[in-house]
Amino acid sequence: MSLHRGTIENEIPEQYGSNYGVLKGGMIMATPKIDMDTCIGCGLCSELCPKVFELRDDKAWVTNPAACDTCDCQQAVDSCPVTAISME
Ligand code: SF4
């Protein structure tokens, strides 16, 4: 399932589990998306970007894509052992 929505940063719900485009300065930023069927729940992404990813029920969720500018989400993408994260 690919859910992709543009939204204004301060209107992003506090917690959600899919990917949203984040509007900053008129530009939609790429945000991480997790393939839940592929994720093995290792927790590496939430260790690298704890403000963006959260483990729940042994799966990673993108809880705050707007925080991607506080870490290196691309590192999480590149480090995922099963290539479950993409930036869209
Ligand atoms: Fe899942 Fe990949 Fe995150 Fe590990 S790094 S929890 S496999 S998305």
Keywords:
88 residues; alpha+beta; three-stranded mixed beta sheet; two-stranded antiparallel ribbon; 7 strands; globular; disordered N terminus; binds iron/sulfur cluster
Descriptive account of the structure:
The protein has 88 residues and is an alpha+beta fold. The protein has two helices and seven strands; from the N terminus they run ββββαββαβ. The strands form three sheets. The chain has a three-stranded mixed beta sheet with strand order 1-2-3, with no helix packed on it. A two-stranded antiparallel ribbon has the order 4-7. It is globular and about 35 Å long. Iron/sulfur cluster (SF4) binds at residues 34, 39-45, 60, 80-82, 84-85.
The unreliable regions are 1-19
Q: What small ligands are held by the chains? A: iron/sulfur cluster
Q: Specify the structural class.
A: alpha+beta
Percentage of residues in helical conformation: 10-25%
Percentage of β-strand residues: 25-35%
The run of helices and strands is EEEEHEEHE
Q: State the strand order across the main sheet.
A: 1-2-3
Q: What do the pLDDT scores average to?
A: 79
Number of DSSP strand runs: 7
Radius of gyration: 12 Å
